[in-house]
Amino acid sequence: MKMIKQTIYMLMVGTLLTGTACEKQLDIASVTNLTNATYYKTAEDAKSALGVCYKNMGVLDPFPDLVTTDDAVPFLSGAADRVLLWRYNLTPSNSFINVYSGAYAGINRSNTVIDRLPGIPMNEDLKNRYIAEAKVLRALHYFNLVRLYGGVPITITETATLEGLDIPRKSVDEVYAQIEKDLTEAENVLPPSYPAADAGRVTAGAAKGLLAKVYLTRAGTDKSSPFWARAAAKAKEVIDQKVYGLYDNFADAFALTARGGKENMLEVQYLTDVYGHGTGRGYGPRAAPIFPGGGSAIARPTESLFNAYAANDKRKPVTFMTSYTYNGVTTNLSITDPDPSKAVSFQKLWDRSAKTNGGEGTSRPVLRYADVLLIYAEAANEAAGAPTVEAYTALNDVRARAGLADLSGLSYQAFKEAVWLERRLELAFENNRRFDLVRTGRLVDAVKAENGYNRNAQIQPFHVLFPIPLSVMDASPTLEQNPGY
């Protein structure tokens, strides 16, 4: 009960903190004497409450995605839980699988906005837009939860007391129904774009793109699923909007100047050395002096991922650091050397201009336009039973930007596998690999095939879901643990 009270206290305090969707305009108001009775009175209160939702918008730590698949190896001298996760010696107490608590904190913040804003006297169109933004962010949290844990409790009203906290799990279909409801309602309210001052807020296209991804996930491995056609249709709506596009250069999608840009449909925005992250340093070569505080070498890319890129693939040097120069001395890095200070490293999200440890300002992608193109290509192929002209166009647009030749003349199966490969290469380090392997039924085989560094993963079919974290199970007696744990 003490833990529950602490959690609710943080949720209630967090709801009164302020911010904006775009970190470039971070507004921090005093919370002295603020209560639910004195707050939620003005349009500025509404904007600030929504800003807190963006601050906790459901970005996932890339580490579990990387090391529970075939994309990365944790350095074996790191925290024990990292290696246990990689080898699938996985228990509910593993510290790297607890997305649960943070997701429900974010859900409650969205619920507060959705519940409280109708009573605020302000411009109705703006009010409805804010509520729609909160619904998309709530849907994102539930989408992460259902993909990681399966059916979870559903709460769509503000939690302000200790009453009614122990909620049983709903079915996977019920969770997806709530996600679809939120996204469908939001896409019809949100604008296609924003002026520069609001760049980064959720748009109609972002809601549609996320919904296309939901439908793709629900289709799973069922060739006859109606969700293939729905995924293709929703992705096509985004394409036909002509609001989003690919940058000419792959690296530009991750540049500081790309915040709120044409390719980044949904992202977590940071501000260099003010409100930053440490993703580049965290995955950089250990002790490398090019990072403030030195690189941490949390995990290294696998040979299978590194070698999957063609030699002329322009994404490869953007995604990986293979050497670095400091004070005129060049250090070459290796994909096979076990020394963490000499290992090829992920660098895709590194902000080279950061001067402080953890101060990197590059955005963390949640949904990029390239992802939507690949969703369309895969879903259209499945819906038609063969690759269509439009499916080829979507796939080849992504390949062309990478400097690769167009594909043509592929069978249904070959085209599908080509899209799967393209997703791995295009979206590496962006929290997509595990979800893609699970939804296509390939996780177990992919993990077993990746046995570098004597992994010997003890993966079983039930590992497609993470366990409900032990702390959550202890606090919620009615919850049932996932099978196998």
TrEMBL record:
One Pfam family it belongs to: SusD_RagB
Assigned protein family: Belongs to the SusD family.
GO annotations of cellular component type: cell outer membrane
Main location per the UniProt record: membrane
Domain SusD-like N-terminal intervals: 94-216
Gene3D superfamilies: 1.25.40.390
Organism: Chitinophaga cymbidii
Compartment annotation: Cell outer membrane
Keywords, in A-Z order: Cell outer membrane, Membrane, Signal
Domain (RagB/SusD) ranges: 321-485
PROSITE patterns: PROKAR_LIPOPROTEIN (PS51257)
Protein name, UniProt field: Membrane protein
